[in-house]
Records
---
Amino acid sequence: MSTETAQAADDLPPLFAELSAWAGNDGAPQLRVLDSVAQFTHHRDIDALDHSLTLSLAELADAHVVTLYKRSGGRGDPVEGLVRCARDEHDRYSVVSLQPASDDTAQMLLRQGDRDGGCVRLRDGNHGMLVPIRREGRVMGALMLEGEHPMDGLRALVEGFARIYANYIALLDESERDKLTGLYNRRTFERHMQRQTKRLDDGDAEQPSTPRWLAMLDIDHFKRINDTWGHLYGDEVILVIAQQMRASFRQNDALFRFGGEEFLVLLEADDEATAGIALERFRSRVQAHVFPQIGQVTVSVGYAAVGEHDYPATVIDRADKALYYAKNHGRNKVFGYEDLRTRGALDDSKAAGSVDLF
């Protein structure tokens, strides 16, 4: 466990005491707060954690809307996404993930020096309160509460939840991320795939889901790099590839280091051709990069569609077949499984690449 993670774990017990003090001596409010904390820290999936946090705060604060703003970097970086829990006309809460608007009140406040927005009167007559979420001196997001009553008395509660959330995110990141690159690790891939297939199953006609594609990337001649230059340079190549992936793909594309020199991308694209263009752009970017001492490094890419009822191993196998084709047809190329099948270019009786599924 890292020092930061250990500190995150150590910070949790005092926060429970703070929240209990906020709830007062009456046992019922105290139990409500502790039960809410137990509910949202029960999750091991960050998306589920985000949804549970906003719902817990909305119920405790009797708020009309609770919004969680999430940032990927430090001060000045834009908000990358938000989770909003809102009460409908039937007095029921629903939680959705959304793309942030550039003119959002909380975004503007965060850009103005990451300061606490205080409790303010909103244009619609409701009251609002913005509480930044900080970790190790960095603002990683904010919680915005909106309701018909002033919220000054809720500050200790919301700040306590913000601190617990920041600490818990640090704990989850430690277990979900590859230590060398910071990309998602292999353990988390199946959970992302399960979430994706559930999203496809739950999609409706009014808001159809954007199709997803699984791409498998492999560094060409990586063993030769390690044998010639040593493993330190091999690790440096892996780090640069991860950086190029972050620069090439969008925030809502999930990036994984699958093991060794193999990487996965779970990306959104309307069709196979659009997915291929995004992957070709990444391949060209890597080819054009000058790696210290080594010079040019290339990658081969195979990708396949993610279907409604696909198992993770099934999609990996299809992407791996396309990757195997790229490796055996000159390397430094991008091929899609569906296109190869249509052209009759694949021999499915032949074993795919070197990916060990289990």
Note: The chain has eleven helices and eleven strands.
---
Amino acid sequence: MGTAEQQDSAGADLHDGVGARIRHFRKERGLTLRGLATESGLSIGFLSQVERNISSISLTALNGVAAALDRSVSEFFSDPPPEEEPDRRAPAPPPPTHFTLTRSATAATEYISGQQTYRMLSARGPNLVLEPLLVHIAPGGRREDSYGHAGEEFAFVLEGELLYEVDGVEHRLYPGDSVHLRSVVPHSMYNDTDRVTTVVSVVTPRLF
């Protein structure tokens, strides 16, 4: 048991953003930045910038960090989705396992990581593997390290411009442009303009 001051400090640490939570969970496991870099596949310098809230980290890269720290991705956000209140009415029939239907009026869960805001575009389905997201990328911030991971990734630009690096080559995407790749190829995206870029992104595997 630590002192009350230490416990208060740790609690505050958890509510200072994604980077602070990475630092908290890393120290909790007794890992150095080098150790986390080795286990997650990200560079020490980039992870240091993320922990200090200098750089943003994408959900796919955060998924690798979460796996290295034996945490779920949702634990890195200060405002996780609220738990549903128990329904005391007669039980409804079980939801279908082969599809989901999400209405526009349904409140969507959003996650914010630095310059990027992710809006979930579909309900959870136990046998579905795609993770469809609406991503708003604010201008500014540091560029993320190129990163490879399991699965596939698709990005379609709705508004603004997006600098998308694939295997060391930069591609500038405009509204209507898209990129689709096997995610094991190192890649990253960055908004180097002065306006928000909006992207529909679909990745595998599911992150939440």
Note: Residues 8-76 form a domain with the 434 Repressor (Amino-terminal Domain) fold (CATH 1.10.260.40).
---
Amino acid sequence: MTLPTASAPLDVSAVRLFELITSSWVAAAVGAAAELGVADAMSREPSPLAEIASRVGADAQALHRLLRACADLDLVRESPERCFALTDLGEALREDSAASMRGYARWLGSPTERSTMAHLADAVRVGGPVFESVHGVLVWEYMRRHPEVAALFDQGMSDISAQLTRSLTEDYDFGSSGLLVDVGGGRGRLLSLVLSANPHLRGVLYDRPEVIAGAEPALCQGELSERCRVEGGDFLDAVPAGGDTYLLASVIHNWNDADAAKILTHCRRAMLPHGRILLAEVVMPQGTEPARTARFMDLSMLVHCGGEQRTPSRSAELFERAGLRLNRIVPGRGVSVVEGVLA
């Protein structure tokens, strides 16, 4: 075997592949910083390493190794004498930031999530989810048995609602809607944004009882509470009746066709005759154009629950199974709105 000489040029493909292979290390570092609450223990002004370590309960030397890696990611800035300050990007890891993604970073960095995605190859081999084979039960049953994991997941989904899905408040016109039922709406972060942007609109937040127990205070006792009610239940069994608009934000992609059609059928039966069903989803392109978010999110759905990021034609097929028809797709900056009406 011939070994490469020291003077041999680096292979560009090998270097690029190395970067891709080790990208999981990057995600792990961001997740660790989020889990430790590093950003919450810092500010824009430089703080000594020892103080930050004391605030988060970490070993100072090990924390230094994490923070200097985060500095390369532009999350923090290192100054002389081992002092660190937050950057604009790092601010989004703070719990109290308007742009906070800390909950989502914690969820993606959690042992449950990382151990599941480690079995992606198995999911590709068998052609379906592997969560049950990894953890012993199906994903939603696992969440019920492990409330601390479910709480972490719900917080991550709240971040997605607040930062990515919120674009629909401007990209979609709710002017003709009267009663919006947010099916699987989590803690109601998105619903509170939609109601705030549409003063004429009334809302219903619908999710599992243990989820709505942590609903946004504004929906339960704040200024929006007079226009909103919170209701617990299981959308695989039924959904609240009487709405003219049913919103399922990042919900249907979690389910296979049979279960997704069942959920949509419940919505069709519950809505008013002139009603509409809105799927706020990252839509998979019909063609081969780049769509990194959609394609990698689709792999997550494969591994966890057998759902998928559907193309427009797949969405049309799904609506048809539920007695609906695809009316239009409203493109958005975060997610698109796939609108269905009675067939």
Note: The CA atoms of residues 130 and 333 lie 32 Å apart.
---
Amino acid sequence: MTARVFGAIDIGASGGRVMAGVVHRDATTLHTVHRFPNGALHRDGHLRWDLTALFAEVLTGLRALARGFPEVESVGIDTWAVDYGLLDSDGALLAEPVSYRDTRSDAAVPRVHERVSRDALYAVNGLQFLPFNTLYQLEAERESPLWDKAAHLVLIPDLLAYWLTGALATEATNASTTGLVDVRTGQWSTQLLDDLAIPPALLPPLEQPGTIRGRLLPAVLDQTGLSPRTVVTTVGSHDTASAVVGVPATSSRFAYVSSGTWSLVGLELDKPVLTAESQQANFTHEGGVDGRIRFLRNVGGLWLLQESLRDWAATGRPFTAADLLGEAEALPAGGPVVDVDDPTFIPPDDMPARISAAAVSAGLAPPSTPAQTVRCILDSLATAYARTVRQATTLAQQDADVIHIVGGGSQNALLGQLTADLSELPVTAGPVEATALGNVLVQARAVGAAPATLEQIRAGLARTQAVRRYRPS
């Protein structure tokens, strides 16, 4: 069997990469051809993404992909969720997208709930309450002078795909994070669109992962050198949807933690759990590939560590993560544990001070050194992971035999062992690039180059990907 090549554009809140995925029999190898930073910037009174610059980085990555892997057949795109750009009737971007970490939607939350109660929202969309969910951002957007000029609302990965192909659509797994999709039907909720006075024409039609979005525009071919035969294939464009495809599970009884800037912790289900208990526990139902449901909670993530390192560097203490993790591991157990889901941790800046303040507020001795702060972050994350897995299994009445940690957090040995100890479940950590693997394999499956079912895909990853295992001590 000849090896086949697929490109993955994988962009998170703190950085992105373009990768080549080489699929040969049941083994997939990834090759990074371009990496680039990402981060929201303060502009025009808001925290915005520089999507124009990100697209330029994507084109740079595709040029490198064409040089190194000219046989690439397809490209897939995944990014973070909930954020969007507004296009005018000519298809031009009206402004750089506002980041979910901007505070503009805070005041919009009560206005939304005046029209639709939280209970009524959950009964339709099944989403965890987060003040930055797209439907709250849209309520805030009404006060913007751009609202009356907007013809299309396009989620971030679909906007990048539009600039590559000229085709407008909304990938289904990412659409599920907007709060505007009916969790039972998987379609835009006409009821919610009507209740919230959102014009249906604003939303491009839904498209399932594995669908060919389109061929590359002539200008893109000129700038990248890719073959005119190269297509953009829709994948699980919410990065967590792709990451869950890339979980190397050998059983259906698994819990997962997609550990990156955020941590997404939960189970994969066939049907929603729309109970009062599920809503009270703030569990969400996000779309997965093949119509699966990702029953999970957004839990604080490595953002706390990333921001702490950035803050220390800005104040003349450029610590490396590796050094501080080593020091943190040597510290005794029993330090402070804070609530990583506290909304005060969402904005950037002054993270170590906010962590100390949270400890004091909880009646605990605050961390006094960088190593103690790092240990506090990891203890707190592991506590949240274990608690959330227990809640998920109880609410869904579905046991878990193992926790799979994928993404950046899978490289953190202390986090893996703490999670195993606190959950009293074995932990399998890795692959770190689960998102890119899931992205590539959905593309490959669409053209018959990968197994037909998620279970077969995951079994192949379990045989071929390097992982680390932790058992409760």
Note: The longest strand covers residues 27-37.
